[in-house]
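A quick aside before the break. I want you to see a complete sequence-to-structure record at least once, exactly as it would be stored in a machine-readable document. Don't worry about memorizing anything.
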Amino acid sequence: MILGQRSYEIYLTHMFAVLGLFALFVHLGKPLRAVPLLFIAAIAAAGILGWVVAILYAEPMNRFIRHRSRTDRTYLGAAVPEVD
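That is the input. The structure line, written in tokens, reads:
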């Protein structure tokens, strides 16, 4: 998995992963030896969550919007008028 290709989705969802893992960290008594593992797990969880959001929501929505703008000429995906 390449994180750069899903960076926007990761950016939008990373705090869910971070806060969830931090809550687990606090529940376990804040073991300082686990901090490096917490950082690695947060990066991995954020990447996976961003990938899931991209596959299940962002990409299907992008395909729908592109298809709609190609088939319905009254709906323009951009504010620039069409040049014939």
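Two observations worth writing down. The chain has a mean pLDDT of 83. Helices lie at 7-27, 35-71. We'll return to this after the break.
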